[in-house]
Specification:
Length: 174
């Protein structure tokens, strides 16, 4: 049966007579909608992205890490800030626990070669650092960072100032 007989002369059918596809008109409508969405979608996405701040929220760089009596002689790991606080009686210093290769957290180990001296070992790629933070093995390009420690004037707590690095000889004496 020919469906064109029922249509007005010159009319274009909406679909093929056997229902096997869409008409040219419907195809062009859909193609136009897709093109408009593509053309308008990119600027809309870029405009929306510009409304979101391009900021990285980090923990404060200057924080109280505890009372002096919380730190026994020797190293104490402070996991929240990824640092080791090393106390020797009345002196304190701070070494970063972030490997200078890719930022993995180093672990404190007993050095096999030096009968008990401590070393820092990176479990990710094998970098090793001496007790003073100096790198001596593995891919780490430089020593571990040393940070300034201060005493809080209001309550006497130990303050980590991770915004300020210092050399390995620096000590806070209390």
């Amino acid at each position: 049966p020919d469906t064109m007989q029922d249509a007005a002369p010159g009319a274009v059918p909406d679909a093929q007579a056997d229902g096997s596809g869409i008409s040219r008109r419907r195809y062009l409508e859909l193609a136009g909608i897709a093109a408009a969405a593509a053309v308008l979608g990119v600027p809309t996405a870029l405009a929306t992205r510009s409304c979101v701040p391009n900021a990285l929220y980090e923990t404060p760089r200057r924080v109280k890490i505890g009372n002096l009596d919380q730190f026994a002689d020797g190293p104490t790991f402070v996991p929240e800030h990824r640092v080791f606080v090393l106390r020797d009686k009345e002196t304190f210093h701070c070494i970063s626990a972030r490997c200078t290769h890719l930022g993995c957290t180093v672990q404190l180990k007993q050095a096999a070669e030096t009968a008990g001296a401590m070393e820092f070992h990176c479990p990710c790629h094998g970098s090793k650092f001496r007790a003073d933070g100096a790198n001596f093995a593995g891919p780490a390009p430089r020593p571990l960072d040393h940070f300034i420690l201060e005493l809080a004037p209001d309550d006497g707590q130990l303050v980590l100032n991770a915004a300020k690095t210092t050399d390995s000889e620096w000590r806070l004496t209390v």
